[in-house]
Amino acid sequence: MTRPDEGATGRRGPSWWPAVVAVGRARPGLAAVAVSTTLLSAAVPALFIILSGTAAGLLARRDDGSAGSLGLVVAAMAVVLALSQLSSMIRSDVLEALARQMDMVLRRRLIEAVARPVGLGHLEDPRLQGRIATAHGLANRLGGPAGGLLGVTGRIQVLLTAVGCVALLAWVDPVLAAVSGTLHLVVGWWLRDNYRQLLHHLHLDPGALRRGHYLRDLLLRPGAEKETRVFGLGRWLLGLHHTEWLRVSTAAWQGRRIAWWKIAAGAVLLGAGQAAGIAVLADDWQDGAVSLAALVVGVQAGIGLLQFAAVTEWDRLAHIGWDAVDALVEVEDAVRPAGPTGDRDPGAAPLREIELRDVSFSYPDGTQVLHGISMTVPAGGSLAIVGRNGAGKSTLLKLLLRSHEPTSGEILVDGVPLRELDPQRWRSRLATMTQNFVRLPLTVRENVAGPGRATDARTLAAVAAQSDLDTVLADLPHGWDTVLSPQLAGGTDLSGGQWQKVALARGLHALRTGATVLALDEPTANMDIEAERAVYDAIIDATREHTLLLVSHRFATVRRVDRIVVLDAGRIVETGDHATLIQQGGLYAQMFDAQAAIVR
Ligand SMILES: Nc1ncnc2c1ncn2[C@@H]1O[C@H](COP(=O)(O)OP(=O)(O)OP(=O)(O)O)[C@@H](O)[C@H]1O
């Protein structure tokens, strides 16, 4: 695997060509037009050289017949010029279409790759995040995978033009063609290699830029605007952003200085080669070894050899495109599942219970969060997990959702290991509301039922009543069809507690449309006390025939569930119902008393 900071100098070819071939196969007609117009565009300079050589020869003859022939040659030049204009217009349109196709195919591959793993650990891997950004073309504002197709075809055209020039020069002076062609090829290869390194320095590492982008977004995007203004952080953040850019770009500029002298040396070599070539041709002409027509052809073809060495916009686009496809292949390799992911249908599970057997878990950074957790959640029952901040409560829910896999131990659903169940079907059994629930900039209806899903008015009305969302809907200008985003025309925003009601309604809607377990992480943290009480009554009612898993610090509500598990530093320290735990006088009783004392 290439490291992200190897950027544009990474692996070449093998990843790229299958992607180009796939696009060609998908749109064979367009691909054929692209190839033929590229060949025509590449041939135009050679045709012009031949025609101008012919014109020079005719002018040198100065006989009566030459004027008519000259007119024909000029007409032919006009036709070639018109054809080349037409061809390049068609070519650029066709290549744009193919590039868009390629972009679509590669983006789909990227999205599928990122969605493939059962867990979400890869989304927390900063190195992989950098490669995902590169594959998406987001890491580089100068180009992306689609630009690569334009770059490569442009590059091929330039090389074909140079090959045509070698052939013409060989017709005039084969030895000069061999010597000059080799010089331009070698220097061209050297210059392009240098350019790759230069690009590597300019192609700023997305990982290194992330901090800078984050600081910029704090200033430009909604979200942190209140804090930045209230605490007067604007100038300070701007300064930090500037320092961050300087830090990343200084390394780029240093690398750039190294490359420039090599480019200058290459230019001197090529200049000397060109001058020597023209001098040889001029000598040949003066000696009468070549005609004026051949001299004109030879000089122009010799200059045309510079195309071998030309480092153009196409090279930059091609390298960035190559790197994007390399990054995509790396992402695909990295997320390839190591073993089977499970394909058993969970049916209406859990029918008996969910069991955690000696489950331990560490996050990828090595932090061990859960230690030997063993507990049973009876199907159709209600269980609350309580504990201090950071005890591991939300992490336990993440394991149930299979966002992460236990490091050791096992989770069983009706006796079947969770890892043997089809992850998608298992997740559809779970109606969840996490602390970081998603706030979709869509309508209330879409936030509750899911974008593009069919809705049933009675189900929506029922979940709105259970989640207290109906009190919010009553004040919204378009009810269920109100767009929840102040950034969109006609949209509005909700308060924290109102958003929580939307998220809860989403969970309850899922419960009414196929889910069997309602897993809630602090579902009422922002609600007022009346709403909280009403919502909890409704939740208990809604889950009479379902399983309820609740993570909460609110003891007034926790006390109402069948069983409570108390976590402390990733270990179960107490289990029982409210009365038993209070009687035990342990951590639960301490936390309950502390909260009651605040309320009193
Ligand atoms: N993605 C992560 N990578 C590394 N450590 C993490 C990650 N997410 C959480 N942790 C750590 O795991 C521990 C448990 O976090 P968790 O969110 O499960 O606690 P919690 O009991 O739900 O806390 P709270 O009551 O504050 O919501 C914490 O110490 C936290 O710092």
UniProtKB/TrEMBL annotation:
<keyword id="KW-0812">Transmembrane</keyword>
<feature type="transmembrane region" description="Helical">
    <location>
        <begin position="158"/>
        <end position="191"/>
    </location>
</feature>
<keyword id="KW-1133">Transmembrane helix</keyword>
<feature type="transmembrane region" description="Helical">
    <location>
        <begin position="67"/>
        <end position="86"/>
    </location>
</feature>
<keyword id="KW-0067">ATP-binding</keyword>
<dbReference type="GO" id="GO:0005524">
    <property type="term" value="F:ATP binding"/>
</dbReference>
<protein>
    <submittedName>
        <fullName>ABC transporter ATP-binding protein</fullName>
    </submittedName>
</protein>
<dbReference type="Pfam" id="PF00005">
    <property type="entry name" value="ABC_tran"/>
</dbReference>
<dbReference type="InterPro" id="IPR003439">
    <property type="entry name" value="ABC_transporter-like_ATP-bd"/>
</dbReference>
<feature type="transmembrane region" description="Helical">
    <location>
        <begin position="39"/>
        <end position="60"/>
    </location>
</feature>
<dbReference type="InterPro" id="IPR003593">
    <property type="entry name" value="AAA+_ATPase"/>
</dbReference>
<feature type="transmembrane region" description="Helical">
    <location>
        <begin position="263"/>
        <end position="282"/>
    </location>
</feature>
<keyword id="KW-0472">Membrane</keyword>
<feature type="transmembrane region" description="Helical">
    <location>
        <begin position="288"/>
        <end position="311"/>
    </location>
</feature>
<keyword id="KW-0547">Nucleotide-binding</keyword>
<feature type="domain" description="ABC transporter">
    <location>
        <begin position="354"/>
        <end position="594"/>
    </location>
</feature>
<dbReference type="InterPro" id="IPR039421">
    <property type="entry name" value="Type_1_exporter"/>
</dbReference>
<dbReference type="InterPro" id="IPR017871">
    <property type="entry name" value="ABC_transporter-like_CS"/>
</dbReference>
<dbReference type="InterPro" id="IPR027417">
    <property type="entry name" value="P-loop_NTPase"/>
</dbReference>
